[in-house]
């Protein structure tokens, strides 16, 4: 039995639903639920009613409602592509109903931007004792970047020392300003202070203050800025030989100008302001004004390039490799009506789910992606739309 | 009897209240009302309870409520420094109760940015028949700039041909972005298409697309942009010899970047967006996030320079004059706790009111400022805080 319940009906969900629908060998039946049932119905229409059996409205903040839904559907696995604020309520509901769990982004409390795994790692014993598995962060970054690191450590090095994850969206959506995934989460991530791991401790930087101009395969040179990104926390824990681990993302000048203006006037704040007698969070209102990331797919040109530079030692020799994927916005749109940022997150969610359901990665407890054998995951990336490449190269970074 | 009722309790109102309070010879008793009574109480406290007799809460959109308030207070004159959306309801209430009316900005319907006098000019017969007077636009621009033009026409020219009103705020409030008066009205004014009068017709320009670098007395050279401003409409009507009439305002690059970003993403739009089940106007929410213009006064350095270049003919000779006022933010703050943009609007409102109440300008009907003898107004500008200067000069503009 490989019935899945997918919770969430945004841009990433649309990719997960459609990719799962294409693969009945892993996913015999698909059920879909989100706050707005009309979005689920649209996805059901697009993926086919024979594959998406039934859709439901659910408030994913509400555990009893989730429990009732899960008990009704009786899936083997819940794929959570709702908001990161809702990870814990969905995990609680999975525990209560005896169902496995997978997500693509770590739990975030709504009031503070944290990006840390502490809350979800605290579920380790509960999931183990229940004989249930929770797979955390099965998107691209986190997700594929963790698997790339595990793959490099397994096949290319005796010890890995330097890790630089690089994320470039070389696409053009033609909008004045838009975020490629949930604007609320995206802006929280970018406006926080930068952080990286070096010599056994976390070091902080001002937001968007450390820049490297990096050359991206298929795209060219792009200004890349040091950010904290959640996979750094688990990678540093699981690869204790790492001397340094960093994450870089590209932003154009126009994007940064928009961000600075919006931040400077307080529009990216998560502190509520008084408006016509109500408390409204500016960042949430901003999200309502900005384009829906799902709407960017049509006419989106160019491609993404996301990968990891890893420097380490093999047989006493230091070397560097780069493992990466290029993903074209237009090809994603043609295949599943999505842009590449949704696609690169949704496909790994489907692959992680397939590896849980077919037993390859099934193990009770709460796990990050790098804790499993990377080989079957790497194979399915090539099979299901995210082919990767690896080269030995000089590191573009100084030590 | 020279009892006045002031409606509105924002930055401009605070100047009007305090200046009226200083001049019992014109204003024997002051009453104050606004939507938020606590703002009125604060102003009453600051101006003195012996001068501001009583304060009231009133919804200025509601004619019966206004009528009841006016009947209770029985003022000779209502000074309207509420929102421009409320001009017509307050005029209606004045007509119903037999009370004179003054405002500082033309009526604006909420749904469209128009900046035109048609709605208020349509009250001409009603006010005349009722033996009541309505004085429109008694601020600085409109207001003083109209009087400057009338003064030039009266004393310096046989015929005026070219009019350029220039408005420079050379001050620094130390905020990332703030508007100096109601952000909603300010941004509506700036983001509309430019418009000017030339050879008998209105000509349009893209917003903020026509620039001149002008030298402002006491400030220096500043980039100045062609805007439509409401006094152009009445000045062109009342001075039919004008071959061209334009309005220019200075904006710094940072201000324009902020404006472009906010406009580009739709935050300055007056079209409501759906947010958590409600319809919210982005521009109104933006106003809630931006600093209250009244809060800018403390620590605001520098000065404003607003004036009119007028070119015309006297005794067969062409010449140009510049009439202007410089106003220091810090001096305004010291005198009445306001910044210069509020001060330069509030003082002319008080002067216009004083000229109505002492009979100098009293005449039934609906009038713009340039339709009266400018001399007593010009005299009171010098007496009450807005001294002006006039010079003959070369025009900085080409024909």
UniProtKB/TrEMBL annotation, chains A, B:
- The Saccharopine dehydrogenase-like C-terminal domain is annotated at 139-386
Superkingdom of source: Bacteria
Gene3D superfamilies with a match to the protein in the record: Dihydrodipicolinate Reductase, domain 2, NAD(P)-binding Rossmann-like Domain
Question: What sequence ranges are listed for the domain Saccharopine dehydrogenase NADP binding?
Answer: 4-135
InterPro entries assigned: NAD(P)-bd_dom_sf (IPR036291), Sacchrp_dh-like_C (IPR032095), Sacchrp_dh_NADP-bd (IPR005097)
Q: Please give one Pfam family short name.
A: Sacchrp_dh_C
Q: Under which name does UniProt file this protein? A: Saccharopine dehydrogenase family protein
């Amino acid at each position: 039995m490989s019935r899945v319940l997918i919770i969430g009906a945004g841009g990433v969900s649309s990719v997960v639903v459609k990719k799962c629908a294409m693969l009945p060998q892993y996913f015999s039946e698909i059920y879909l639920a989100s706050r707005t049932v009309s979005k689920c119905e649209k996805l059901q229409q697009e993926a086919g009613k024979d594959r998406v059996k039934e859709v439901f409205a659910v408030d994913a903040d509400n555990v009893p409602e989730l429990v009732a839904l899960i008990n009704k559907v009786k899936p083997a696995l819940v794929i959570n592509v709702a908001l990161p604020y809702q990870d814990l309520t969905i995990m609680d509901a999975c525990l209560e109903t005896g169902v496995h769990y997978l997500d693509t982004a770590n739990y975030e409390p709504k009031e503070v931007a944290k990006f840390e795994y502490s809350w979800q790692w605290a579920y380790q014993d509960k999931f183990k004792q229940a004989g249930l598995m929770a797979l955390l962060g099965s998107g691209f970054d986190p997700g594929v970047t963790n698997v790339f690191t595990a793959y490099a450590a397994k096949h290319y090095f005796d010890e890995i020392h330097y890790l630089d994850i690089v994320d470039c969206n070389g696409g053009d959506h033609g909008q004045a300003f838009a975020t490629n995934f949930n604007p609320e989460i995206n802006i929280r991530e970018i406006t926080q202070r930068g952080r990286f791991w070096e010599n056994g401790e976390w070091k902080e930087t001002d937001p968007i203050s450390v820049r490297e101009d990096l050359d991206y395969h298929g795209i060219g040179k792009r200004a890349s800025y040091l950010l904290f990104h959640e996979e750094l926390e688990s990678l540093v824990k699981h690869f204790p030989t790492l001397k340094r681990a960093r994450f870089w993302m590209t932003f154009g000048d126009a994007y940064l100008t928009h961000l600075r203006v919006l931040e400077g006037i307080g529009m990216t704040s998560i502190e509520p302001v008084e408006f016509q007698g109500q408390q409204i969070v500016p960042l949430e209102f901003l999200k309502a004004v900005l384009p829906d990331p799902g709407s960017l797919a049509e006419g989106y040109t160019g491609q993404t390039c996301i990968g990891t530079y890893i420097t380490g030692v093999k047989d006493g020799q230091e070397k560097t490799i780069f493992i990466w994927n290029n993903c074209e916005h237009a090809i994603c749109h043609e295949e599943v009506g999505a842009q590449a940022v949704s696609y690169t997150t949704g496909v790994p969610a489907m692959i992680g789910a397939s590896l849980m359901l077919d037993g390859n990665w099934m193990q009770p407890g709460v796990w990050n992606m790098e804790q499993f054998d990377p080989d079957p995951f790497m194979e399915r990336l090539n099979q299901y739309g995210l082919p990767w490449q690896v080269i030995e190269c000089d590191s573009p970074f100084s030590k």
